[in-house]
Every structure is written in C-alpha cells, then in structure tokens.
Write a structure and sequence with these properties.
The protein is of the alpha/beta class. The protein is built from nine helices and seven strands. The radius of gyration is 18 Å and the shape is globular.
C-alpha cells in the first residue's frame, strides 16, 4: 500500500475531462485536495462538484495554461486555498487530427502551446512553492504517440509529446535541488471523450491491436500518476511509465493474431 497522500494539494491541468478528470478523481479518492484546472470554468466546476459529491475535496479554476499570467494565477489560487502545491499533474492537451498537408502554422502553434509550452510554464510557476516547501512532485501526461509511435494526422501532437520528454529529463536535474521529482506517464489508447469522437470502428480496431484486447481506462493513468507522486517513488525522477496494455509490443499484425 502506498504512503497516504491525504491532505496533499494537487493541481491537475486539463482536469475537467478525459484522462485529467480520471487523474483528479483518483487523487481525490485517496484524500488529496484537488485543483481542477481547465480552460472552461463550467466544465472544471462540474468535475469539482462531482468530486465533492463523492466526499472529496476539490475546487475549480479556469486557466489558459499556455499563458504565463494565467498559470501564475492558477498556482496562486492553489496556494491561497490549500496552503501549498505538493503535486503538479501537467496533463492539459489537445489533439485535433489533421495531416501535415492540411496543417496550418496556427494549428501547429496551438497544439505545441497547449501541450508542451504549458508543461514548462506550470513547472516554472510551481518552483518557488516547491522550494519553500522543500519538496514537490511533477507528473507529466505524455503519450506513446510521438516518443514511440506515430499516427497520420498527429504530427503536431506527437512532436509536443516527444518534446515533453526532452524537457523533463533536464528538468529532473534542475528540480533535484528543490527535492522535487518529475516523471511522465505515457498512455496508449485510453477511453475518453476525445477517442470516442473518432468513432466505434476506430475504437474496435485499436482494441484488436492491443495484446490485452481492450482500451485503457482513465483510472489506469490516474493510478500510475498516483504512484509517481507517492513517497515510495521518491527516488524516481526523469523517467517514464508506458501504460498501454502492451500496445507497442507486437511487431506485426501476425503477432497479434497469434496470441
């Protein structure tokens, strides 16, 4: 059993839907005090209300995580409400599917700003809080797409997710002086609103390509993040955990068929 994180303050960016909502609910169920951050306040408040209804502690905060002033405001709200920030879950991300030939520079910038620049900004904003507390945890939601695999239409998304891993390896060294770790969870195909929008045929096809024969749950990512934020993971930094049901393992369709 992991050391309790009850009472610890956690920021979850992109926390109103999908994987972020799953992370927020997993932490809240273990007694953490959660700041649900999202671009839309109504969506963030809906998730926070759901957590409170289940007996957890959560507040909502509207933030544009690609904007420095907005991120500073997010961290200030967490400190004002819960006293500190113990854990940052840098989860915010978008993945509009568009092939390179159709991709505009503005499309590229939007994805890189939301997915990658936001990781830098959120970490930077939390450093003074971690320094004052003498400890901290950062868990980044990356992906298998980009660092390991590719998929047509997600060049911008893949670049942002690979960029997060490049960032965290140097960040791990720089954050060590504050007794703070930073690691990443790399999800495979997880059932979220975003994936459901791609259609049932896509979901069924992806499930067939996974050795465990199913898509992951948002709680699977939340549980991995919970471990990386725990005291038991205090000597792990600059590392990644792939949570994909074995999706990246088969070298061919024949390998899957032979299972």
């Amino acid at each position: 059993m992991l050391t309790s994180i009850a009472g610890q303050s956690v920021i979850v960016t992109g926390g109103s839907k999908g994987i972020g909502k799953g992370i927020a609910k997993v932490f809240a169920a273990k007694g953490a005090k959660v700041v649900v951050a999202a671009r839309g306040l109504a969506d963030a408040e809906a998730t926070a209300k759901e957590i409170r209804h289940a007996g957890g502690a959560a507040i909502a905060h509207a933030a544009d995580v690609s904007n420095w002033e907005s991120v500073q405001g997010l961290v200030a709200t967490a400190v004002e409400t819960f006293g500190t920030v113990d854990i940052l879950c840098a989860n915010a991300g978008v993945f509009p599917q568009k092939k390179i030939i159709e991709l505009s520079p503005e499309d590229w910038d939007q994805v890189l700003d939301t997915n990658l620049k936001s990781t830098f900004l959120c970490v930077k904003a939390c450093i003074p809080v971690f320094e004052k507390a003498g400890k901290g945890r950062v868990v980044v939601t990356s992906s298998i797409t980009g660092p390991i695999t590719g998929y047509p239409g997600w060049s911008h998304y893949g670049a942002s997710k690979a960029g997060q891993l490049g960032f965290l390896r140097t960040a791990a060294m720089e954050l060590a002086r504050y007794n703070t770790t930073i690691n990443a969870v790399m999800p495979g195909n997880i059932i979220t609103e975003g994936l459901q929008d791609l259609g049932q045929s896509y979901l069924d096809g992806m499930a067939k390509a996974i050795p465990l024969k199913r898509l992951g749950r948002v709680e699977d990512i939340g549980n991995a993040a919970l471990f990386l934020a725990s005291q038991e993971a205090s000597y792990i930094t600059g590392q990644t955990i792939v949570v994909d049901g074995g999706q990246i393992l088969p070298e061919s369709a024949e390998a899957i068929d032979s299972i």
